[in-house]
Amino acid sequence: MRYPAINVAEFIVTEAFGGAGEAGEVKVFEAVKAAYAGDEALGFWKYPLVTRETVREPDILVADPELGLVVIEVKSLPLDIIGAVTGYRWDLTRPYYGKTHLNPYEQARKQAQALGEVAVRKSGLTQLATRAIVAVPLITREAWNERFGTLLSDVPMLFADQLTPAQLRRALELTPPVRYGEALNDEDWLNLRRALGTSGSVPKRQVRYLQAPLESRRKIDLIARTARHLHAFDLQQELIAKTIPPGPQRIRGIAGSGKTVLLAQKAANMHLRHPDWNIALVFFSRSLYDQIKFQVNHWLKQATNGEVTLDSAQHRLRILHAWGSKDQPGFYRSLASQIGVEPLTVANTPDASPTAKLLFACKALLDDAKATGQSLQIFDAVLIDEGQDLVHEKAELSFEEKQAFYWMAYQSLRPVARDALLDTGEAEARRLIWAYDEAQSLDTLTIPTARALFGDAGAQVFGAGASYKGGIKKSEIMNRCYRTPGPVLLAAHALGMGLLREAGMLAGLTNKKDWTAIGYEVEGRFQSGSEVTLTRSAANSPNPLVQFTDEPLVTFQHYPDRQAELRALVNSIQHDLTEGGLQPSRHLLVVTPGLEWQPYNLQREVFQALRKAGISVYLPGNKDVNVPKQKWPNTDPNGFWRDGAVTVSPVMQAKGNEADVVYVVGLDHIAAQEDSIKLRNQLFVGISRSRGWVHLSGAGMAGLPLTGEIKRVITAGDTLRFTYRQPRRQLDDVE
């Protein structure tokens, strides 16, 4: 019997079709897709898994709840090239890709064994069956039998005349197991899907008191229950993490959707599939260094059972800060070295924001490369995280009407080969992949779409069409937020965009399609004066904390002065540490918003208040805990956490990090300029750092418009109703 479909058949093409010998594989893959249409299955073309040097990725992998794992090895050979068949061995009449004999079933059997071992290890399904079969899409059964007789007992075969849905399914069912097992029930089927996918391999959080009683309402116990929650198989995550586009790709993801994790996995998969490629994974915030290195190393080890690590791969796979420094290589500095230019530093660029300083340096480098005629091409793929922080609206920071950093990254890439090995159909393509969330932009209102990045050259960079050959999309939108609970993310979007602001929204999406694309259910029309209702679906906010507690996840208090606010902050943190059972580091985070000097002055005040109460504090970038802001050489530019200490951070440094309880203090800085989109973006970033609770506070805010707005957002719960007005900043997906 078949199980009721949890999902219809899902098939993933991990790299664009077009390679030598792939026409037959495409034919079989399409036949498998047709055979499972409307039924339950998970399929991959070139599943990215390498466990031993002698085991290659399978041509086609099918997961079926009744059959288990099925590996299909495709040999697109004409019959006349096979001279003799003895057992598993095929002797050839002429070389086939340099080989005079083949053992296709033995190859498939080894792959099935290896995949079965990995799947069992990840899923715990000790009764998982695996099968292996050889497909010959250029040979019919009759032609084979005429030449070799019925030599089918040793080698399970799938012939050209068996590629109809009914015959293909029958052939797979009759294939003897390599590893015997049983049909899977619904729970086991979900576990197998997780094991094959990203969700089953994401590093698990280590939280104490995992055996806490279910009735406990201590925060540490609620966090532990939440941490045990397994994400369902997410097809879009698999498509982003496991696919290798043959050209540029844009990934727009809401906060907490896992952009950093998936880019790290994508970079690891690229290296494993193409160990000869030079790959750069680039990011903006230095506090993300350790996190990204950990993630890439995890995915390399996960895919190879520990045989490949970042240390062994880093001569080809490089984790690079966008700028870099003398003691730590960076993307810009590496390219400056490539053409023999002395790299600019923060000190010898014009006084401006960190983004503007970097873009000034990038533009200067592009000018130097153009003047000297030197090539920047050293990479085969460049992946960019935090893409919204690497653009600027100032024309003087652009290079020939293109965003300087992105054009530098594009110029650093070798064009994808245009020979028999790959044909994307584009005139030229380079693997530039960038991920961003425009709502987290703190220094600019520019949205890094292809048009904004490359101007008139954008059409040439991306080429025609929305997808590459084989179906890999040129643009993805990630709408599922795994980090931040639904009510918290809803509040972050509402306050960040000013949706319930009395004077009307400041920023946001202006149509139903784009709101739906980022995970909201929408009612109403986006016409001035019309009412719009937004609801965040549970499916797109799978963090289950809201199911475990009736306590509000978002709170707000305002106080007559700063000292009263800080006393309340100290009391609340002490309660979290004692009654809540939380640890200071990584469980708690204090964020200070503001412009120019404001966040740093407030950071200092919070530091003093916590230290006076005997609470250990860490300021990001410092070498030591419990000390004011340190200067070189007593610094750690990559540091964001220290064990035993509560981190107090300005928004810019907090971006990319997360904690279970986030305190956003000093909201009076935002209330004083409540129509500032940059400050609203800071508020969004601060709130969306949370994996659980958010406490908002400010001083001297009685009667201010922002105070009433925050209260309306919190009262709204899981549904926002607002009167639509055209926003100053439109965030629509215009590509």
UniProtKB/TrEMBL annotation:
InterPro entries: DNA_helicase_UvrD/REP, NERD, P-loop_NTPase, UvrD-like_helicase_C
Domain NERD stretches: 21-123
UvrD-like helicase C-terminal domain ranges (all copies): 646-696
SUPFAM superfamilies xrefs: P-loop containing nucleoside triphosphate hydrolases
A Pfam family per the record: NERD
Name of the protein in question: DNA helicase
Organism name: Deinococcus piscis
